[in-house]
Design goal:
Keywords: Dioxygenase, Oxidoreductase. This is Alkylated DNA repair dioxygenase AlkB. GO terms for molecular function: dioxygenase activity. By secondary structure, the protein is of the alpha+beta class. The protein has one domain: Jelly Rolls, CATH 2.60.120. It is 17% helix and 38% strand. The chain is built from 4 helices and 12 strands, in the order H-E-E-H-E-E-H-E-E-E-E-E-E-H-E-E. The strands form 2 sheets. An 8-stranded antiparallel beta sheet has the order 1-2-10-7-12-5-4-3. Strands 6-11-8-9 form a 4-stranded antiparallel beta sheet. Strand 3 and strand 4 form a beta hairpin. The radius of gyration is 16 Å and the shape is globular. 35% of the residues are buried. Bound molecules: 2-oxoglutaric acid (AKG).
């Protein structure tokens, strides 16, 4: 058996207009320690096949990073869309609009940037980290992730230790939102896997100044 992504019958029949359903009353909130939380909604986006096909064709960039005395390949491809850039598929613009509608009061500002990662296969990954390069180092915020393609696990653990690692399997069209103090009190990762997985694209919506 392979866990590679397979187009669904529903997705073959639906168009961008039906892609984004209301989030009201549909999210499950997992309250973590230290004021962190995670909201989850499997299968949020319909029409994800078309979005995924589009995302596979964007101008992905390979990066290299300094690690100790070496410079190594980042094990995934990257693309970042700034606040004024058009997103590559209308369903992503609609998804961001619905996230902004739903979280307006709780977040108090808008999701404006979209970071994207392409995990080509199970050898690609992201190591344990929190998104603490910006305001999220000191302020509560939210990072909303929509996942496309092959399922991969997003795992979370508290920086303070003393808690089991939590595992959230993310499949095609699934939404996960990390909120509260999550970026500074917990860490997340997408581990490598030896399973025969196909490509996965992660789209991360963030407010300005959160990275
Ligand atoms: O692939 C994901 O969903 C997570 C990506 C991530 O943690 C990051 O880019 O900071």
């Amino acid at each position: 058996m392979t866990s590679a992504y397979q187009p669904s019958m529903f997705d073959l029949m639906s168009g961008p207009a039906e892609a984004v359903a209301s989030l009201t009353g549909r999210l499950t909130r997992h309250r973590l320690t230290a004021g962190a939380w995670v909201d989850v909604l499997p299968g949020w986006l319909h029409g994800s096949d078309a979005v995924f096909e589009t995302l596979l064709g964007i101008d992905w960039r390979a990066e290299r990073r300094k690690m100790y005395d070496d410079v190594v390949d980042v094990p995934r491809l990257l693309r970042w869309f700034g606040p004024r850039e058009h997103l590559p598929h209308p369903a992503l613009t609609a998804a961001r609009a619905e996230l902004n509608r739903h979280y307006a009061e709780e977040l108090g500002e808008e999701f404006v940037t979209a970071g994207m990662c392409l995990y080509r296969d199970g050898r690609d990954s992201v190591a344990w980290h929190g998104d603490t390069l910006g305001r999220s180092a000191t302020e509560d915020t939210m990072v909303a992730i929509v996942s496309f393609g092959s399922p991969r696990n997003l795992v979370l653990r508290p920086r303070a230790g003393g808690h089991e690692t939590l595992r959230f399997p993310l499949g095609h069209g699934d939404l996960i939102v990390m909120g509260g103090s999550c970026q500074r009190t917990w860490e997340h990762a997408v581990p490598k896997t030896a399973k025969p997985v196909g490509p996965r694209v992660s789209v991360q919506f963030r407010p300005a100044g959160v990275a």
